[in-house]
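Notes from the 1:1 (GR / supervisor)

We went over the backlog. Supervisor wanted to see one worked example end to end before approving the batch request, so GR pasted a single chain during the call. The sequence is below; no edits were made to it. Supervisor asked that the structure be written out right there so they could see what the output format looks like.
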Amino acid sequence: MLLTALSIPLDVIAALHETNGVQVAAAQLIGISERSLWYRLKKLEIHVDKIVR
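Structure output shown during the call:
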């Protein structure tokens, strides 16, 4: 269960890192809508500008 709970944030972070913080491209890479990505970022309190640096 813990691995599943951690895999979602890691997928989001990896996709954002790979796309240099371009959220539209990251959402496409993961296979979710842009709105779903925004929801996950807000829910998990992930700040894109801190990931890209």
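Supervisor's comment: The chain has a mean pLDDT of 84.
Batch request approved.
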